[in-house]
C-alpha cells in the first residue's frame, strides 16, 4: 500500500480525462508529475506540482490547469479538499478515514508494509568494504561496511535481486609487504629479535599469525630467502587476514554473498579478455599522455603506453592500462573485475569507496559504460571520514592494530546496533562525528536511543494490555474500528506512517539509506509527541479503562512499531523491546 502512489494515479487519470476533454493538449509527458507531502503541513496532507510542470508544454496558465484538476480530484471519495495555492500548486486534504486505512494496511502487512516491487527483480551488485587484506578493518571501513550493507538491504526491500560483494585486493605489492611482516612475527615466535622497517605492518594482530605459521611449518623458513617462503607466506597471511576481516564484519552483522579475489584475474586471461573487448570497440590505442596538472599519479609515464580511450565515455582524460615495460597499471585489473560483473549479468552496479578514491569515479564509470555498451549503470558512492570524540573532545583509543582504531574497537565499546545506526545519521559523503558519550546518552539528541525508545514504549503498552487479558494480535487490531482516532496528534502519526512506502522508494531510487534513519527519527518523534500529549489529555493515552476504548489506540501504536521494526531491519539494527 503506497498512498502517495495511489493518489498520484488519481491525478494522472484526471489529467488523462482533461486531455480527452480537450482541456489539455495531447502528447503531454506526465513523468515529472509528483504527489508529495507539502513543505508546510498546514497546507494539507499532500501536494501536486502537476499544473506547474505542465503549464509550459501545454501553453496554459498553471492556475487554470490547477483549478480544472482540483475539480476532477474532488470527485474521488478520499479527497476532502483540493485547493489551488500560489502560481498553481495544488494542495490536497484527505478524509480522516484514509488514515485509518493506512494503519490497518500496516497491521495486515506487518514488516512487509512499505515493501516495493519497484526493482522488478533487477540484478544489482553492491560492492563494499573491499579493504586490503593486510589487517583488521578500521573505523573508516566501518562506515563503508554499514552504508553498503544497509543499501543492499534497502534495495532488497524495494524489490531488487541484490548480491553483496567484497573485492579482495590480494594482487598488489601490499600483500608482499604483509607476507614480510608476518615472516618477522614468525621469526619472533622462534625467539629472534626483529625490527619492523618503514612500510611494514607492526600491529600486534600479526603476532598470532606468526605463531600460527610456526605451528604449521616449524622452522622450515627460518634463515631462508624470500624465494623459498614468500609465496607460501603470502597465501597463508592473506587467508589469515581474510578470516580476521570476516570475523570483524560478522561482529557488525555484515555477511557477504561473494568474496572475489583480485589475484584470480592474473594469469587466467581475464584481464586480457577485458582489454580485447575494449580493443574490439576501438577504445584501446598506443599513445603518450600529457603530464597531469597538480600531483602526478603513479601510473603516468612521459612515454608511449597502451591507453584506454575513456574520454569517449565521459572521462576527462584517457587512462593508461599498460606501462611501457608491459606491466599492467592498477586500472587494468579493475577494468577486468568490472568486466566480469557485466558478464555475470548484473543490471546495475554500485561501488562503495572511501573518500580517497574520488579520482577513480569517472574512469570506472567510463570503463563500465564501454564494457556494457551503456547498458549497465554504475553508481559510485564515496564515504567520508569518521572523526572520533568523547564528550565533544577528540578521542584517542588504544590502537591494537598499531596505527589505527579498528572496527572491533568501536563495536566492543558501544555495540553493533549503535554503531550501525550512528553511521547512517549523516549522508555518506559528509564527514561524521562519532561521539562515544553521545551515542550512549539516553536523550532526544541521541537518535539511536530516541528511535529504540519509541519501539520499546509500544512494546510496554502491548505487555500491559496482554496482562489485562486483551487480545492485541495484529489480526485483531487490523479489524478494530479506528474512526475515533481523530485527534490532531493521532492523525499526524498516521500521516507519518503513510509516508513510509514512498520514502522507501525514494531512498532506493537515490541509493541513500540514511533517509531511512532520518525518517525513523521523525516517526519516533510523532509517537513520543502523542505519548506526551496523553499526559495532559487522558483520552489520548494508549491504555484506556476498557479493552474496546484501548484497542484503537493500541492499533495505531502497534502500526508505528511495525514500521520502526521494518526500518531498523533495513539498517541492520535490532528493535528494542525494553530499555535498560
TrEMBL record:
Q: Which UniProt keywords apply?
A: Aminoacyl-tRNA synthetase, ATP-binding, Cytoplasm, Ligase, Nucleotide-binding, Protein biosynthesis
Coarse class of the protein's main subcellular location: cytoplasm
InterPro entries listed in its UniProt record:
aa-tRNA-synth_I_CS (IPR001412), Arg-tRNA-ligase (IPR001278), Arg-tRNA-synth_N (IPR005148), Arg-tRNA-synth_N_sf (IPR036695), ArgRS_core (IPR035684), DALR_anticod-bd (IPR008909), Rossmann-like_a/b/a_fold (IPR014729), tRNAsynth_Ia_anticodon-bd (IPR009080)
Q: Do you know which SUPFAM superfamilies this protein is assigned to?
A: Anticodon-binding domain of a subclass of class I aminoacyl-tRNA synthetases (SSF47323), Arginyl-tRNA synthetase (ArgRS), N-terminal 'additional' domain (SSF55190), Nucleotidylyl transferase (SSF52374)
Naming one, the record's GO cellular component terms include: cytoplasm
The Arginyl tRNA synthetase N-terminal domain sits at 5-94
**What are its E.C. numbers?**
6.1.1.19
Concerning Pfam families, the annotation shows:
Arg_tRNA_synt_N, DALR_1, tRNA-synt_1d
Q: Where is this motif: 'HIGH' region?
A: 131-141
Enzyme category, top tier: ligase
**Catalytic activity, per the record?**
tRNA(Arg) + L-arginine + ATP = L-arginyl-tRNA(Arg) + AMP + diphosphate
Which GO biological process categories is it annotated with? Answer: arginyl-tRNA aminoacylation
The record's GO molecular-function terms, alphabetically, read: arginine-tRNA ligase activity; ATP binding
Family recorded in the similarity comment: Belongs to the class-I aminoacyl-tRNA synthetase family.
Q: Which PANTHER family match?
A: ARGININE--TRNA LIGASE, CYTOPLASMIC, ARGINYL-TRNA SYNTHETASE
Assembly, in brief, is: Monomer.
Q: What is this protein called?
A: Arginine--tRNA ligase
Amino acid at each position: 500500500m503506497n498512498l502517495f502512489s495511489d493518489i498520484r494515479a488519481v491525478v494522472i487519470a484526471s489529467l488523462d480525462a482533461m486531455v480527452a476533454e480537450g482541456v489539455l493538449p495531447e502528447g503531454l509527458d506526465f513523468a515529472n508529475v509528483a504527489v508529495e507531502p507539502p513543505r508546510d503541513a498546514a497546507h494539507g496532507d499532500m501536494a501536486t506540482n502537476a499544473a506547474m510542470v505542465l503549464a509550459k508544454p501545454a501553453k496554459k496558465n498553471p492556475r487554470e490547469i490547477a483549478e480544472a484538476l482540483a475539480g476532477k480530484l474532488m470527485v474521488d471519495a478520499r479527497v476532502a479538499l483540493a485547493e489551488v495555492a500560489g502560481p498553481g500548486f495544488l494542495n490536497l486534504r484527505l478524509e480522516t478515514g484514509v488514515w485509518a486505512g493506512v494503519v490497518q494496511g500496516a497491521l495486515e502487512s506487518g514488516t512487509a508494509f512499505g515493501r516495493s516491487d519497484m526493482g522488478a527483480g533487477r540484478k544489482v551488485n553492491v560492492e563494499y568494504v573491499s579493504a586490503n587484506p593486510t589487517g583488521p578493518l578500521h573505523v573508516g571501513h566501518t562506515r563503508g561496511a554499514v552504508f553498503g550493507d544497509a543499501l543492499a538491504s534497502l534495495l532488497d526491500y524495494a524489490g531488487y535481486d541484490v548480491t553483496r560483494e567484497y573485492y579482495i585486493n590480494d594482487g598488489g605489492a601490499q600483500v608482499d609487504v604483509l607476507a614480510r611482516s608476518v615472516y618477522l612475527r614468525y621469526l619472533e615466535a622462534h625467539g629472534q629479535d626483529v625490527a619492523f622497517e618503514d612500510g611494514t605492518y607492526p600491529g600486534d594482530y600479526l603476532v598470532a599469525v606468526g605463531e600460527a605459521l610456526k605451528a604449521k611449518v616449524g622452522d622450515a623458513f627460518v634463515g631462508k630467502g624470500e624465494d623459498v617462503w614468500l609465496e607460501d607466506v603470502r597465501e597463508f597471511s592473506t587467508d589469515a587476514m581474510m578470516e580476521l576481516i570476516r570475523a570483524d564484519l560478522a561482529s557488525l552483522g555484515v555477511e557477504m554473498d561473494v568474496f572475489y579475489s583480485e589475484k584470480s584475474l592474473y594469469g587466467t586471461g581475464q584481464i586480457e579478455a577485458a582489454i580485447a573487448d575494449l580493443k574490439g570497440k576501438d577504445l584501446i590505442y598506443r599513445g603518450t599522455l600529457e603530464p597531469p596538472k597538480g600531483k602526478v599519479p603513479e601510473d603516468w609515464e612521459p612515454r608511449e603506453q597502451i591507453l584506454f580511450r575513456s574520454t569517449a565515455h565521459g572521462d576527462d582524460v584517457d587512462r593508461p592500462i599498460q606501462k611501457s615495460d608491459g606491466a599492467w597499471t592498477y586500472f587494468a585489473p579493475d577494468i577486468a573485475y568490472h568486466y566480469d560483473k557485466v558478464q555475470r549479468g548484473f543490471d546495475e552496479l554500485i561501488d562503495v569507496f572511501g573518500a580517497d578514491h574520488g579520482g577513480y569515479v569517472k574512469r570506472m564509470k567510463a570503463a563500465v559504460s564501454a564494457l556494457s555498451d551503456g547498458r549497465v549503470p554504475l553508481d559510485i558512492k564515496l564515504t567520508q571520514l569518521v572523526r572520533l570524540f568523547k564528550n565533544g573532545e577528540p578521542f584517542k583509543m588504544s590502537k591494537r592494530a598499531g596505527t589505527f582504531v579498528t572496527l572491533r574497537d568501536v563495536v566492543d565499546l558501544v555495540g553493533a546496533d549503535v554503531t550501525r545506526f550512528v553511521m547512517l545519521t549523516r549522508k555518506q559523503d559528509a564527514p561524521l562525528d562519532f561521539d562515544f558519550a553521545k551515542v550512549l546518552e539516553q536523550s532526544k539528541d541521541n537518535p539511536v536511543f530516541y528511535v529504540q525508545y519509541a519501539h520499546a514504549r509500544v512494546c510496554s503498552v502491548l505487555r500491559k494490555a496482554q496482562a489485562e487479558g486483551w487480545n492485541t494480535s495484529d489480526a485483531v487490531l487490523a479489524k478494530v474500528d479506528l474512526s475515533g482516532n481523530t485527534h490532531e496528534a493521532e492523525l499526524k502519526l498516521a500521516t507519518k506512517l503513510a509516508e513510509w512506502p514512498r520514502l522507501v522508494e525514494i531512498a532506493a531510487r537515490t541509493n541513500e539509506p540514511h533517509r531511512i534513519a532520518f525518517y525513523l527519527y521523525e516517526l519516533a518523534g510523532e509517537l513520543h509527541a502523542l505519548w506526551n500529549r496523553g499526559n495532559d489529555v487522558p483520552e489520548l493515552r494508549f491504555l484506556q479503562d476498557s479493552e474496546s476504548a484501548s484497542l484503537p489506540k493500541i492499533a495505531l501504536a502497534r502500526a508505528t512499531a511495525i514500521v520502526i521494526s521494518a526500518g531498523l531491519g533495513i539498517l541492520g539494527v535490532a528493535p528494542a523491546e525494553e530499555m535498560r
